[in-house]
């Protein structure tokens, strides 16, 4: 009789472990954005902050999305909800300005047919021009950015577009000409805000996120040079991006 009783006991133990694992899973996995529907293609576009040193050759699967906020978002929802078959893509290119993004828009965005499209661009339009003591042509930047959005909507009418405002904090790159940097970046942020209003698109307000963060610990712990996020900064970006998307498309 004793041996026959061990088998049910073993089953009970296994069931308890399974329930515990399921409970643990539920606690660690938050609900994915409604925009992340079955088989959704989520494309992140931008400059070096999005690029995150991604592997363009596709040789290393662990580096396809770089090491920034796109990776964190993809790891969270791709890992916790594999049954949704979500496809995450990163086409950020280090050093890109709005005009550079426009030059590759057809190949790197339109052709990929994203269901969700995230755009973070503009800080290099400030950086490159200030470094070269050149005039920042805001009207041209806005017109080019506007066309990117329009072209994406025409090509993919149901695409959900998320605009992300560029951001800075005081750091080695920005401090020497802080007032110029601050004024110029604010103008780019205003462009993003206007385009969000014009096209009825949500905007991820990263500047406020980092302004609030530097009240807790020094700026360099979030953006190591005043422009590029550290790993902690990328996590804040991922959190704000997800919050923005969930709020914009709750169902």
Average per-residue pLDDT, rounded, comes to 90
End-to-end separation:
56 Å
Tell me the CATH topology of the largest domain: Rossmann fold
The radius of gyration is 21 Å
Q: Work out the count of structural domains.
A: 2
Overall form: globular
Q: How would you classify the quaternary structure? A: single chain
For the largest sheet, list the strands in their spatial order: 2-1-3-4-5
User: Order of SSEs, N→C?
Assistant: HEHHEHHEHHEHEHH
Q: How many individual β-strands?
A: 5
CATH homologous superfamily caption of the largest domain: SGNH hydrolase
Biggest β-sheet: count, sense, barrel?
Answer: 5 strands, parallel
Low-confidence stretches: 1-8, 10-28
Determine the fraction of residues in helical runs and give it as a percent range.
40-55%
Number of helices: 10
Percentage beta strand = 5-15%
Give the C-level CATH assignment of the largest domain: Alpha Beta
Overall SS class: alpha/beta
CATH architectural arrangement of the largest domain = 3-Layer(aba) Sandwich
């Amino acid at each position: 009789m004793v041996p026959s009783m061990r088998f049910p006991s073993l089953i009970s133990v296994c069931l308890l472990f399974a329930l515990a694992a399921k409970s643990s899973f539920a606690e660690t996995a938050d609900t994915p954005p409604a925009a992340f529907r079955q088989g959704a293609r989520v494309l992140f576009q931008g400059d070096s902050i999005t690029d995150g040193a991604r592997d363009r050759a596709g040789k290393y699967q662990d580096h396809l999305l770089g090491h920034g906020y796109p990776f964190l978002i993809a790891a969270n929802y791709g890992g916790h909800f594999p049954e949704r078959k979500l496809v995450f893509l990163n086409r950020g290119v280090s050093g890109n300005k709005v005009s550079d993004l426009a030059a590759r828009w057809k190949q790197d965005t339109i052709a990929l047919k994203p269901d969700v499209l995230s755009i973070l661009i503009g800080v290099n339009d400030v950086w490159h021009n200030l470094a070269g003591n050149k005039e920042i042509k805001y009207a041209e930047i806005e017109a080019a950015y506007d066309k990117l959005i329009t072209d994406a909507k025409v090509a993919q009418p149901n695409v959900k577009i998320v605009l992300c405002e560029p951001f800075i904090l005081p750091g080695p790159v920005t401090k020497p000409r802080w007032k110029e940097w601050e004024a110029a970046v604010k103008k780019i942020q205003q462009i993003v805000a206007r385009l969000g209003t014009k096209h009825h698109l949500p905007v991820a307000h990263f500047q406020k996120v980092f302004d609030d963060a530097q009240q807790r610990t020094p700026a360099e712990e979030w953006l190591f040079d005043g422009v590029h996020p550290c790993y902690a900064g990328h996590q804040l970006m991922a959190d704000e991006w997800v919050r923005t998307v969930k709020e914009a498309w709750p169902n």
